[in-house]
Design brief:
The complex is a heterodimer.
Chain A: H1 9-27, H2 35-58, H3 62-88, H4 109-119, E1 121-122, H5 135-149, H6 153-156, H7 161-167, H8 186-201, H9 205-209, H10 214-217, H11 225-249, H12 253-257, H13 260-268, E2 274-278, H14 288-292, H15 300-305, H16 317-321, E3 327-331, H17 340-376
Chain B: H1 2-14, H2 16-25, H3 27-38, E1 41-42, H4 44-47, E2 51-56, E3 61-65, E4 68-69, E5 78-86, E6 94-99, E7 109-114, E8 119-123, E9 129-137, E10 140-148
Antiparallel strand pairs in B: 2-3, 3-5, 4-5, 5-10, 6-7, 7-8, 9-10
The chains are: A mainly alpha, B alpha+beta.
């Protein structure tokens, strides 16, 4: 029972840094002025800190992470549509090339880097600074998350991942038991092709033509027939890749087999300090970790070596499920006899910190807009 | 050696949480510093590019932007010129604006924007002009004129 704490002074002391971090991040040092914001802050603050406390008390990571992660995905849609409404006057956006101040999506980051280096321009219709989800804010946030969490970004920070994470858990058993082998190479191919196209055309081609999560944050401009048909195509991709396939395969098909940012996050694993280890002495080879992993990061060969693939998003599901407690967070460079609780706490603080501070801000804005809608009939001020 | 690796490992892991806090708390200031030091800008494809000239109509102004070429390889196919009218409150219902494009040989080229509907029409459209688009902004209207690139710089005056 080494992963659990009892509800006592020690647990409260361990929760204290999170209470302070979230208070600072959600209020930006100022107590909210109007009651809509106050209510949104109280609900968000209570929910995220309760989940952190429960993580400490129960020793379960993924159970509480998932609830918050799905909530972030849900409130993100409301938040971004509300913000779009404030920027453009209506949620349907203007034609792509007429957009300004569009929030930056982290998935598009790989396609901006080479054009930025070559032309000193950002091929995204956003604001560089001082705006909701400005380009530099998202870029620095992504950089910080990549250094501290590596591919953990995909289960703790990315606001798109909640949808297919949720859908991948709906059925008790998968209908499609195995994904074809080439699927693992698909994100590499998508990254390569679309980086090349984006560099040639100086337009984020992936975002314009292939992104399956686009319909979640964007309604088509009705007067453009082309936009309507493109939106329909993106919607079909969303239903297939983010809804149907995760349900049938019990895998996060978008995050594991499609998303080009996931490839970049894999390389961030080289600088990140955390990974997962499987204790060969404790492992009874029951296969629970292989079956429960929804990004296919554990195979029989790797399990027997005590490792997992770099696709691991550190969601903690296999740790929660392992009947013998053989899987644990591990700090790179430390030996097999390293302090498991210390490794776990160091990871949990950074991962949960990111989820609570970044995802919490998204949830707070979403809750605020729902309260605003209930009381005034509008999602925007 | 193992002990040193272990200590370095824990030190790097302990820095993870401060990195999280710093990346979120200082992103605004760091972002401004990044923009200032690199001189990076938003691509002209989205902003419309630099303003080449401004015509003052008294109650409203017309800003004609420099032509923006698509793609990293110049003259890849198309370029566009943005014409921006502001302020929105002072714009007439119908705007008729003359544009002077260097490779136009068929007389004066006019664009006509209906600010009630966003509909764009034209007079004496040159062969090189392939498309029009208009969009309403908070403080005005923008019209993008797509021009086929024919090995010479196309610029509005």
């Amino acid at each position: 029972m080494e992963n659990k704490f009892r509800f006592n002074v020690k647990t409260l002391l361990l929760a204290l840094p999170m209470l302070l971090m979230t208070a600072f991040a959600l209020t930006k040092g100022k107590w909210p002025q109007d009651w809509h914001h106050r209510m949104a802050f109280i609900l968000t603050y209570a929910a995220f800190n309760a989940a952190f406390l429960l993580t400490l008390i129960t020793g379960k990571i993924d159970r509480w992470r998932l609830i918050l992660y799905v909530a972030v995905a849900f409130f993100f849609i409301i938040s971004v549509l509300g913000n779009m409404n404030e920027i453009y006057g209506s949620p349907p956006l203007p034609d792509f090339e007429f957009r300004l101040n569009t929030p930056l999506c982290p998935v598009v980051i790989p396609f901006l880097l080479i054009p930025a280096a070559l032309t000193k321009t950002v091929i995204w219709p956003g604001a560089l600074t001082d705006s909701f989800a400005s380009i530099t804010f998202i870029f620095i946030m992504w950089l910080g998350a990549s250094i501290s969490l590596g591919r953990g970004f995909c289960s703790w920070v990315c606001f798109w991942g909640g949808a297919d994470d949720l859908f991948s858990r709906l059925l008790p058993k998968p209908v499609i038991k195995k994904m074809p082998g080439w699927c693992k190479d698909l994100p590499f191919a998508i990254l390569l092709v679309f980086v090349l196209l984006s560099t040639l055309w100086l337009v984020p081609v992936y975002c314009a033509w292939l992104c399956p999560v686009k319909p979640l944050a964007e309604l088509p401009a009705e007067r453009f027939v082309r936009d309507m048909s493109m939106w329909g195509f993106h919607l079909a991709l969303f239903i297939t890749i983010v809804v149907i396939l995760p349900i049938l395969t019990k895998k996060r098909t978008h995050c594991a087999y499609f998303c080009p940012l996931g490839v970049l996050q894999r390389s961030a694993e080289f600088i990140n300090s955390f990974n997962l280890r499987i204790d060969a002495e404790k492992c009874v080879k029951c296969g629970t970790c292989i079956n429960s992993c929804n990004v296919s990061a554990v195979s029989e060969e790797l399990r027997d070596k005590g490792q997992r693939e770099k696709t691991c998003t550190k969601c903690g599901r296999c740790i929660d499920r392992c009947p013998t407690g053989a899987i644990h967070f591990h700090v790179k460079g430390t030996g097999t006899d390293s302090n498991r609780i210390l490794s776990k706490m160091l990871f949990i603080y950074s991962a949960f910190g990111f989820l609570a501070m970044f995802g919490g801000s998204i949830c707070m804005d979403g809750i605020y807009r729902i309260i605003l809608f209930i009381t005034t009939g509008s999602f925007s001020q | 050696m193992t002990k040193i690796r272990s200590i370095l490992g824990y030190l790097w892991a302990m820095l993870a949480t401060p990195i999280v806090i710093l990346s979120l708390a200082t992103s605004d200031n760091l972002g401004r510093l990044l923009v200032k030091s690199t001189g990076i800008k938003i691509a002209p494809f989205f902003t419309g590019g630099e303003i080449a000239c401004t015509i003052d109509h008294g109650t409203y102004k017309t800003h004609i932007h420099e032509s923006v070429t698509f793609g990293i390889i110049k003259n890849m196919g198309e370029s566009s010129i943005q014409v921006y009218f502001e302020p929105a409150a002072a714009l007439p219902e119908i705007i008729r604006e003359e544009l002077d494009l260097p490779d136009v040989s068929s007389g004066k080229f006019f664009i006509i924007l209906d600010t009630r509907t966003g509909n764009v029409e034209y007079e004496n459209k040159p062969d090189t002009v392939t498309d029009f688009k208009a969009s309403k902004f908070k403080n005005g209207w923008a019209v993008r004129i797509k021009i086929e690139v024919r090995n010479q710089k196309t610029e509005a005056r």
